[in-house]
Specification:
With 126 residues, the protein is an all-beta fold. Helices cover 0% and strands 47% of the residues. The strands form two sheets. Strands 2, 4, 5, 6, 9, 10 and 11 form a seven-stranded mixed beta sheet that branches. It has a four-stranded antiparallel beta sheet with strand order 1-3-8-7, with no helix packed on it. Strand 4 and strand 5 form a beta hairpin. It is globular and about 40 Å long.
């Protein structure tokens, strides 16, 4: 059973930066793609970014392009989300997820992903 563990969340002032990490337990680890989502209180889970594992092609929600960067390490077992110029509206629980099968769902759709981490809280103060 694949396990994903996020870390790196915390409290940061507006304009600050955070780097989230998501470590996978499987060895070797070769998903189709990895994604980052977030969920604020009272809101639906929303797509943030994704990376195709074989090509390292990245995808972002338009509002986060240039502010957030998704990447992976050379050992290909950890995915990162570098977040900069954070705003209070970025406050949410951030989840990483692994897409391991072709199921017809786009990378922006949570249904594309079979495995999820427990989430890490990001709080941006004004």
């Amino acid at each position: 059973q694949l396990q994903l563990v996020e870390s790196g969340g915390g409290l940061v002032q507006a304009g600050g930066s955070l780097r989230l990490s998501c470590a996978a337990s499987a060895r070797p680890f070769s998903p189709i793609a990895m994604g980052w989502f977030r969920q604020a209180p009272g809101k639906e889970r929303e797509f943030v970014a994704a990376i195709q594992w074989s090509s390292s092609t990245t995808y972002y929600v338009d509002s986060m392009k240039g502010l957030f960067t998704i990447s992976r390490d050379n050992a290909k077992t950890t995915v990162f989300l570098q977040m900069s110029s954070l705003r209070p509206e970025d406050t949410a629980v951030y989840y990483c997820a692994a897409k391991v099968a072709y199921n017809g769902h786009a990378l922006e759709n949570p249904r594309a992903y079979a495995y999820w981490g427990q989430g890490t809280q990001v709080t941006v103060s004004s």
